[in-house]
Amino acid sequence: MSTRTWGWLAAVVDVVLVVLFALIGRSSHGEANTAGALWTTAYPFLAGWAIGYVSSGAWGRPLRTWPTGVVVWVLTVFVGLAIRVATGQGDVDGNPLPISFVIVATIVLGVFLVGWRAVVRLVQRTAAARRGRRTTA
């Protein structure tokens, strides 16, 4: 698959995973998952993802865990949390950003945004090694 194709596919996978993160979060708290409610939860992280995707140059190296995956992950979390605080989302009992949410968001988005890239790279390397063994045997 070409880098350009992987670039588009990586963008789609990332966006789906960020929306899935928001969906899981809303569901785990028993909140409604209407399109508007889901958008309200997801858009801060999608904005962060977009900044991370562009600033990391992800379209040119979409499967790299470093720097692509890590930059996309860190900016998705940082910008997403900053927008949530700025818009008053997530205020729990006067706490604008519960540390438990910061920890969960950081871990889950890290596993999602870096993890899938690591898995694909591992599969690609394994397949290449098997092809190499077949040609030398």
Automatic annotation (TrEMBL):
The keyword Transmembrane is annotated on this UniProt entry: yes
Claim: Membrane is one of the keywords in the record: yes
Spans through the membrane: 7-24, 36-54, 66-87, 99-120
Keywords: Membrane, Transmembrane, Transmembrane helix
Coiled coil: none
InterPro entries recorded: DUF3054 (IPR021414)
Name under which the protein is recorded: DUF3054 domain-containing protein
